TrEMBL record:
Tagged with keyword Electron transport: no
Listed name of the protein: Fe2OG dioxygenase domain-containing protein
SUPFAM superfamilies per the UniProt record, alphabetical: Clavaminate synthase-like
A Pfam family per the record: 2OG-FeII_Oxy
Molecular functions (GO terms): metal ion binding; oxidoreductase activity
Fe2OG dioxygenase domain: residues covered: 208-310
Family designation: Belongs to the iron/ascorbate-dependent oxidoreductase family.
Alphabetized InterPro entries for the sequence: DIOX_N, IPNS-like_FE2OG_OXY, IPNS-like_sf, Iron_ascorbate_oxido_reductase, Oxoglu/Fe-dep_dioxygenase_dom
Keyword hit for Zinc: no
The entry's keywords: Iron, Metal-binding, Oxidoreductase
Amino acid sequence: MSNLAQALAPTCLMSTVMRPKATTYTKPKTALPIIKTLSLQDFNCPSTRPQFLKEMRESLMEIGTFYIKDHGISGNMTQGAMKTVQDYFALPLEEKKKMLIGNSRHFRGYKLIGEEFTNNQVDHREQLQFGPEQSPIESFVPGCSPNHEGLQGPNQWPASTLALLPEFQPVILDFMAQLEALSHRLMEAVALSLGLNMSFFRDLFGQTPYYRLKCAKYPSVSKQATIGCGAHKDTGFLTVLLQDTVGGLQGQDPKTGQWMDTRPVPDTFIVTMGESMERLTDGLYHATVHRVLNNTSGHDRYSIPFFFDPALHAQIPARISGLDQATYPRYLHSGEDSSDSEDESSFLATKSRAEAQWDAMVESLDSPDLENTITREGWSNGDHVFETVYRCHPEVYSRWYNREF
């Protein structure tokens, strides 16, 4: 045996005989990402817009979440909306049952505690859901028409409830209108952060975007025996959330799987991306996995998420071509919209190459029946939204729709 072999032999033997057990290894925890607070005023100001977009992009690439302040919705409006929701949930149960969601073909109304599942867990919350106030499609026929056409329609407004809470209807409708305007503005910022024309998503969403306002009450309990809301990703494009001061919302770091407390920050909304944006950006922007811990604070918790999506008839492309994870869009350094840049031809050339790569990938697929089928055409937003609400509220489907799954 050579001198080198003799020197190494004891070390090799030791590593073989005394190898530590896997269970003794503890993976070190890494520092959790910081959820940034961004000011919409910085987006509105040309001189600060590039920095705003840079920080937005970093937040959405890292965790998919940020707080937004200076958003243009007054404190009186947010406080009034929260009080109205609290007043509704304080009504007698028999009064709230007049708005049961099963009464509405359009998936609008009240849901009792313990009747919704998220990630196969029973949610410990009461809920109230609204959507755009519209006339129903009169030609809709269950089982014959596209199911998503049944989503269009009015909200429930029982006369006895309005008599008890005269501010209920006007406050909810006004709050939804202001959240719709804010969401459009945020999607303009998202478009620019991706190097797209500011109007990209407004053009995609159309004149009648579909949205849902969900009002939730998480009652305080003596012990954490259940989950307030199970871990999940929102399925759509954008969520804007108003929460009270109790806390309990957590987001998951996509890199480590660790849970981060999304603490209440006064005068802000929490903004998160949904799975549609994650898919559309080919994973560049994250859809945040989040959950709500059971509430043991001694005070009931209230939250009001607003889910913002394209029109129900919209066809969504499979992905946005030409997005580059390694570099920021060139306009971030100049504050310009990508459509106005001098090097537009270079940008279009990059997009063309990416589109060619995407086409080649699609053509190479062995099976046309993959889960979440990938096609050049993308998907129907109406079908996607209907599948989401159907899973959450099967009692509405069983009463109003006629389709075999």
